[in-house]
Amino acid sequence: MAEAVRHDKTARQLRLLSDALDSGRLGPVKRLVNTLSPAEIGNLLESLPPAKRTVVWGLVDPEDDGEVLVHVGDEVRESLLAEMDPDEIVAAVEDLDIDDLADLAEDLPDTVIDEVLKSMDRENRERLEQVLSYPEDTAGRLMNPDVVTVRADTTVDVVLRYLRLRGELPEHTDHLYVVSRRHQYLGRIALASLLTCEPTDPINRLIDDEQPAIDVDESDDEVARQFSDHDWLSAPVVDDGNVLLGRITIDDVVDIIRDRAEHQALGAAGLDEDEDLFSPIRRAMRRRLIWLTINLGTAFLAASVVGQFEMTIEKIVALAVLMPIVAGMGGNAGTQVLALMIRGLALGQVGSSNAGVLLWKEVRLALLNGLSLGLLLGVIVWFWFGDPKLSAVIATALTLNLLFAATAGVLVPLTLKRLGFDPALASSIFLTTVTDVLGFFTFLGLATLILVR
Amino acid sequence: MAEAVRHDKTARQLRLLSDALDSGRLGPVKRLVNTLSPAEIGNLLESLPPAKRTVVWGLVDPEDDGEVLVHVGDEVRESLLAEMDPDEIVAAVEDLDIDDLADLAEDLPDTVIDEVLKSMDRENRERLEQVLSYPEDTAGRLMNPDVVTVRADTTVDVVLRYLRLRGELPEHTDHLYVVSRRHQYLGRIALASLLTCEPTDPINRLIDDEQPAIDVDESDDEVARQFSDHDWLSAPVVDDGNVLLGRITIDDVVDIIRDRAEHQALGAAGLDEDEDLFSPIRRAMRRRLIWLTINLGTAFLAASVVGQFEMTIEKIVALAVLMPIVAGMGGNAGTQVLALMIRGLALGQVGSSNAGVLLWKEVRLALLNGLSLGLLLGVIVWFWFGDPKLSAVIATALTLNLLFAATAGVLVPLTLKRLGFDPALASSIFLTTVTDVLGFFTFLGLATLILVR
């Protein structure tokens, strides 16, 4: 039910906009679009088929263009950029924050990046170049170098005067960072504590040095974990020598968390999280065919197992009727184990220290479930085909296949992870191959042994 | 690769802890555990089998007990609470923030809640009772009533003096809220702007009234959407009469986003996001059996379709060998469409206004993929069985089943959503039922028409 209520607002906007577009009157469309935040506009653009998307993109206030580009997936971004000439792109992106600009940089033509760099003042140019010098998916790329720093050997009074002179603080500033003469990170001071302390207090009495700084090379996943484990809203980023380079704010971390979840959900079906709902058919076809061809290969593997038992099936056709049940139930049971394992691995909760205990728990569970379901299945098959031996064969085969499924459900993701692959993406294919192949083999093999001679 | 690097720190801690536990020396375990944040301790406890979990829980600094309870899933929380006597529970939770306490309240024995309420001062008691009076999964439950308010008809100077007198601000305070005489929400003032303005400025010149307040009845999903669409760090919560009730901070929103992603990933396999990795075997068994029994039912449906064609299979056993390929490939192709649809629905990007265009795109894509894969499959089958007619039958059946899969992939989640169900949870069962039943029917039906007579 929760899902049904969710995002009703977005869906409503989409419908309104779509109706207005269909009616051809662009005035209302333009007004509607420009009441939205850039993220909402991005969301709407992603939901529109190419032709409508082009029309609406042309109606977005040029001032919002840059922020909208930041908020859409790679594929949609490409389609939007294709509609703009270089001057428009430069105008759209030059006022973005450094971290957003760095995020976009991959997708921008080199000439545009050169133009943007030229249009910046020296300080910002150097900052952008610095951020771009760090690899993607690291803290260095996420950080914004625009931070307010103060020195430890001063008083609150002086800092307050400095802030008043400085005027506006960078967006989402909740702490000032205290640095040494050589710009090394010493700790931070909450804006809240500046407001509640006495002006004559020395700064070093307010310093909070409990929160460790983030290393610039840290992976963005690790950054996300630390933020959510410690309920941080922002964190300083330092280099090897503890020199303060910038800060990461939670709004960017939220984007990582969402991306990661989408990556897992779509990746498990062989899709990219940046996949456009309306991606050009040729591109979509290529991506899906790769995945389906791999699956076709594993399906042949299973079919060749069945092929070994053609003689048996010829004699007892009921086996052909029942064999998909054994294989399919193994796949379903294994998928449950897999879902738990994938989450456990993602949270770092599963590893060599508890894999054995987990496997043992899942095997016991599979045995109990297998016996229960096997009994149920056996009774139904007995009624259907009137053959107690067939019924015993399928009950045994089902139980065995659930045991195989549990074992594969635990071991496949662990093995993939150890080999350096992403278990969330590839586990499911391996698992169903195991449950299909062993399911068919066990059922038809037992049938050959017990029913045929 | 990203996944492989992720959370190495957690996995390392887990291994260290596990080794220390195995060695039986509890001193090092205790020291190790108490260097961790409550969320990290929670994560570790979730990764431990019951016996070790009990030992480690006993070693956690009682001061952290409450925060740890907040950071674990429902099932694990239950197992931890079972180890505590009422006095310990009261001591653990009475100092929690109101919003965290409200979050725990469901799982606490009534006697404990009464004790906690008694131990609170009147203001906090009323606040807790108020928060608990709102339904779960709404903004009212998420909010913390502890906010700092100021009146509009004053100056910065006065506010600064008030803050200094007040001392510490509630955690994660980034704005003060401006309210009317009747406590109605008028707007907010960033701490940053208090620090950069002139002390003589009137307060009403600093008020930012651009951010709309959140309605106390809003669903938590909608709250999460607004936060991420607008990059908010906090937001005021008001009632119908615009009276300020509290504020929601982004750290709680991050928890919602994570929960939602887990809910989708585990829910699709018939599991609960609060499922304990080591849940008691009887409970785990019950939950999984329900799901597997439903799947057994759909498997029988598919088997009964195959049963209609026993005569055909008896004549051409190769059909039994090949039929799982047709059904399975339909399932795989449909799963890809489903993954895109589920994400689109979750983001509000898919609705009645574009469902038609999407269906048309997916059907075209399925036709192209079906013809390509059908050709490949046909050639292989021709080589394998040397029968061009069989090869034509399976190529046609595969193409048709991919078309059915695309149609079901688009329509099943839309229909479930319209009926008020969560499409992320139930779509996959319906989809594979469609692709199995129609896959078998098309393949075996065509074979009967073309190959048998």
From TrEMBL, chains A, B:
Domain of life: Bacteria
Membrane protein topology class: Multi-pass membrane protein
GO annotations of cellular component type: plasma membrane
Signal peptide interval: none
Gene3D superfamilies associated with the record: CBS-domain, MgtE N-terminal domain-like, SLC41 divalent cation transporters, integral membrane domain
Pfam families (UniProt xref): CBS, MgtE, MgtE_N
InterPro entries per record: CBS_dom, CBS_dom_sf, Mg_transptr_MgtE_intracell_dom, MgtE_N_sf, MgtE_transporter, SLC41_membr_dom, SLC41_membr_dom_sf
Primary localization: membrane
Gene Ontology MF terms: magnesium ion transmembrane transporter activity; metal ion binding
PROSITE patterns documented for this protein: CBS (PS51371)
SMART domains linked: CBS, MgtE_N
Assigned keywords, A-Z: CBS domain, Cell membrane, Magnesium, Membrane, Metal-binding, Transmembrane, Transmembrane helix, Transport
Subcellular location as annotated: Cell membrane; Membrane
Residues spanning the membrane: 289-310, 316-342, 363-385, 391-416, 428-452
CBS domain ranges (all copies): 143-206, 207-266
Subunit structure: Homodimer.
Purpose: Acts as a magnesium transporter.
Family to which this protein belongs: Belongs to the SLC41A transporter family.
Classification via NCBIfam families: mgtE (TIGR00400)
The protein's name: Magnesium transporter MgtE
Species classification: Bacteria, Pseudomonadati, Pseudomonadota, Gammaproteobacteria, Lysobacterales
Protein encoded by which gene: mgtE
